[in-house]
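Predict structure. Input: Drug resistance transporter, EmrB/QacA subfamily, 456 residues.
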Amino acid sequence: MIGVILLGGLLGILNSTMAAVATDTLATVFGTSLSTIGWASTGFLLAVTATIPFTTWAVDRYGGRRLWLAGLLLFLAGSLAAGLSWNVGSLIVFRVVQGFGAGLLDPLVLILLARAAGPHRAGRVMGLMGVVLSLGPVLGPIAGGAVLGSLSWRWMFLLSVLVGAVAWLLALRVIPADDRAGAPAGGRLDVMGLALLGPGFAAVVLALSQTAEQGGIAAWQALLPLGAGVALLIGYGGHTARSQAPVIDLRLFANRGFTASVTIMGLGGMALYASLFALPLYYQQAHGHDVLAAGLLMTPVGLGGAIAMPLAGRLSDRLGARGLATGGAVLAALSAFAFTQVEATTPEVWTVLAALGVGLGSGCFSAPTMGSLYRTLPPPLVAQGSSVLYMLNQLGAALGIAVVTLIIQTSGDVVAGLHGVYWFAVAMIVIVLAAIPLLPGRPQPRNTTEEPVRTS
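Output follows.
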């Protein structure tokens, strides 16, 4: 079951990063500007962000299996339509449909895995999830470059239909029917909260994306959505004080372990996306590599995370999160610091080793942190916790990309920009180190009567 869920979760990440690589190609095909075609990716991201709070409520109302199958069908419909797009407007609309489907699937991956694992196996299963989170952003550009090099751009979306159809059939077979007996029924939908929280987060993400595109926060394209997003989120804060069943209860943050976990994941995501954004530019501009070669040189980041996260997650179920997370954060900080010493003439073997260190270190603190998050939450709050984690991860990624873009744009050359980006990454990881002692301690002894998790 876990393998099938991870396959579905990988679809959205791969499709999003593949489409980002094709921006220039799509602009040429449709005869439009890069800023216009960029809305195909921005619209996808905003739809994902706006849908996540609804998923929190719907998973208890309709059940995880039904919602998973529905989200996968919606994503496949958007993928097929995007592959058949006839102009830029239709492509943007269908990418938004894809985003709504991914907004159902992405938090459901965490919810379904956490419920299947239980608190004593949370680290192990979140480590497996980390393989997807680590490899997806790295493999996407490589796969996108390979598709564009040999096939039509339409196959970037049509291949998702083929893989997604297999994932849907497998899910139909292996994901168990929802046991509604004694499960939360999913009360009345908090419509007001949903109308404030989803668009509020989406507006802030849009503002950060526009900050990167416009080269600063002072542009009206960034200030307008930022103001709207902050107003909506403040309104949601006031709404939760009056609501008996908010879509996401802000009292979750009264739990010190939960707050530390989502903070570490958000800051760690910012540091990791700094690498994913800055390193390809360095390899292309300083070493003269093409897009595909730069993507291949990025694989040590994802490979390091894919190696470390399952191992660290499994160990954290026995040893706790703090020691593993501290060691991982120290390794990631030292590896990021190594990039602040890189020059245009530095042999690539050293940058590859430093990138592997960043990936290994990030994996060693991410999987235990995710596992500890689910150990701090009672089962009825797993859906809300997953949604908070995913929304803050989206926000951290958008903020990281915006900051990295500003650093690079204001630097004199690509090497100076790389140094600035990695000093930013070091600062984020130092804050992560300060937050790690707030994580929960060693887990309680495991209940030997628990059923094993199915990994088919």
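Residues 181-185, 448-456 have pLDDT under 50 and may be disordered.
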